[in-house]
Amino acid sequence: KLKESIEIPIHLHSHATTGMSTTTAIKCIEAGLDNVDTSISSMSMTYGHSATETVVGILKDTQYETDIKIDNLAPIAKHFREVRKKYADFEGSLKGVDARIITSQVPGGMLTNLESQLKEQNAVDKFDEVIDEIPNVRSDLGYIPLVTPTSQIVGTQAVINVLNNERYKVITKETQAILKGEYGKTPADVDRKLQNKVLGDEDPITCRPADLIDENEYKLTKEKYFKSLEENSISVDDNEENILIYTLFPEIGLKFLENKENKDYFEKSPTQLSEEKNGYYKVVIDEVDYLVKYSQTDEPEIINGNSNPELRSNNNEPVSNETGMVVNAPLAGNIFRIEKNVGDTVNDDETIIVLEAMKMETTIKTPTSGKIIQIFIKNGDKVQSGDPLFEVV
Q1: Nearest 5 degrees, angle CA 107-CA 112-CA 114?
Q2: Which of 109, 153, 190, 240 has the fewest other C-beta atoms within 10 Å?
Q3: d(CA 213, CA 220)
Q4: How far, in whole angstroms, is CA 114 from its chain's centroid?
Q5: CB of 346 within 8 A of CB of 375?
Q6: Measured between alpha carbons, how far is 114 from 94 in angstroms, rounded to an integer?
């Protein structure tokens, strides 16, 4: 019926996680499909697509036979069999079919990303819990379609909910945007209680979100973009695409533009992952406890010398010590922005740090009003869950 209704070509993209991709492809071809995505056999199935050789073989001697020779595909499969070995550390743990996906409705391309996120958080053992949580988050967000970027938003929020052992204790900036209506109207109503938690006294957006964009704000961003290029001696084409890259991802985008044509900036071939020993350690010298930040690439840095700091925590709850309350990182990630300085007076629940974790921005707020007496990190630092971020008294 779709072919009878439209003139444009129909293209099928289907992952093999549930074991249905090959059957789906064949039935669609029989119904008049124009194009279908497949993967060479050595890179196919589970997270990928059906094997090209398999689909070609099924269609042989039928009215849908392709002009592809299976023998010609063998060298390609052999080549990528070796290539795949180099990236073994980045592969997911699923093997074969995972029928849970039929229920959870998690797209195949989302699964490897979830496992990667959990590896970053040293919490791969939470994978099953996250899979169970995803449908719940999707329901709370109005059954929003699981396609890029909303699949990433739903998946990341599910990971955060599981890692914090409390649903929506931390809400990403992007999840908040969906609840505010910045992504448009969702197929179903979002959870009202959750929406009220984010919006407070504000009203959700009910019009076309793009109509609310402030042109002056974009002009100011363009001015900042050109100033950043000049300050960093970056030479790139003057086009809207580069401006948009910077607008959407200021720090990461600027680094990308700086090295866009610099092939030496990227590794020529994958390197073996090594266990990182970076982190915070307590060193006792003459009965005085020192908090030391250690990195394999930097000299050790003494953060403080309090008599009993106990700043590093095995969880992300604020830790009280003799001087004040230390707020720890709820997730592993990178410090994207520090919005306050030492000596600033802050209110309860005020944003102090923006943490980039799992490609999402997470705001770290102060649990109490007071004065910031220490900030243990700087912009761009990589932190682990439980690392101390700042101290308020």
Answers
A1: 85
A2: 240
A3: 13
A4: 8
A5: no
A6: 12
